[in-house]
Specification:
This protein is an alpha/beta fold and about 260 residues long. The chain has a single domain, classed as Alpha-Beta Complex (Spore Coat Polysaccharide Biosynthesis Protein SpsA, Chain A), CATH 3.90.550. Helices cover about 40% and strands about 15% of the residues. It contains nine helices and ten strands. The strands form two sheets. The chain has an eight-stranded mixed beta sheet, with helices on both faces. Helix 3 crosses helix 5. The protein is globular, with a radius of gyration of 18 Å. It starts with 14 loop residues before the first strand and ends in a 6-residue tail after the last helix. About 35% of the residues are buried.
Length: about 260
């Protein structure tokens, strides 16, 4: 873990930027983004899946990935899982909510205001996404200072940026002993680990990287449709809808004292 000149203080929400040591240009881009903002951040050295020698990579089980996900994960996808795993460990270590960024996103002008909005929300919500790749059906949870907290009915994919509390990090770590699917798919499975798929919009980040390098993370052999895979998809579909139904009923229930 390395830090730029600005240090994280007790009254700030730490920003952790995942960055491969060999990705010097992305590192420079992040430093330039925050140069005039006076927003403290720190770099987290990403797990380089192409090297295959990181201790955390023992969590990856290729045979489980084939049976569960339908194909093996690429080295880049394994490294991506490991990098976010390290970020969750970092959140538990500092003992307060953090913002996690991948190094290929760019902050929008309202990002600073978003930090102030996030701080009180994190006491109630353990995981709030600040970017998503796909548009998905959602329910509005609440409006806060011109922004909207929503709950996705289906995960949006992508973990380019999100805020997470120690409780949320501990929950994700507990369910990630075996890596058998891409990390964003794991986080998207809210009915499995129990953390709702929340997001604060409009997103304070956009994904500004060219897709050539990021695509290589996910390229793999064609999916092997197994009986186990089909069964898992069926139960995932059921689990997602059942979870969403419970949330809908919970929202309709009368509040105490109402």
């Amino acid at each position: 873990m390395t830090k730029p000149a600005a240090s994280v203080t007790d009254d700030t929400m730490p920003i952790v930027v995942i960055n491969l040591e060999r990705a010097a240009n992305r590192r420079k881009s992040i430093v330039a983004q925050f140069a005039d903002s006076n927003i403290p951040f720190e770099f987290l050295t990403a797990v380089d899946g192409s090297r295959g020698d990181h201790p955390l990579m023992s969590h990856y089980d290729p045979s489980q990935s084939i049976w569960y996900y339908g194909k093996p994960l690429t080295p880049g996808a394994v490294g991506c899982f490991g990098s976010h795993y390290l970020a969750w460990q970092r959140c538990v270590e500092v003992g307060k909510p953090i913002i996690v960024m991948e190094d290929d996103v760019a902050a929008l002008p309202h990002f600073r205001r978003t930090i102030g909005i996030l701080k009180p929300l994190m006491a109630e919500y353990p995981l709030i996404r600040l970017f998503g790749l796909n548009e998905r059906p959602f329910r509005q949870v609440r409006s806060v200072d011109g922004m909207t907290l929503i709950r996705f009915l289906r995960g949006p994919a992508g973990l380019q940026s999100y805020a997470i509390s120690p409780r949320g990090a501990e929950t994700l770590l507990a369910g990630a002993e075996c890596w058998r699917e891409p990390v964003d798919r794991y986080v998207d499975r809210f009915w499995s680990h129990g953390l709702p798929s929340l997001a604060l919009r409009p997103y304070p980040f956009f994904w500004g990287d060219d897709t050539s390098s990021s695509t290589r993370i996910w390229e793999s052999k064609s999916t092997l449709i197994t009986f186990v895979g089909k069964t898992r998809r069926f139960f995932d579909h059921f689990g997602r809808h059942y979870y969403n139904l419970r949330q809908e009923l919970k929202a309709l229930a009368p509040k105490n004292g109402a």
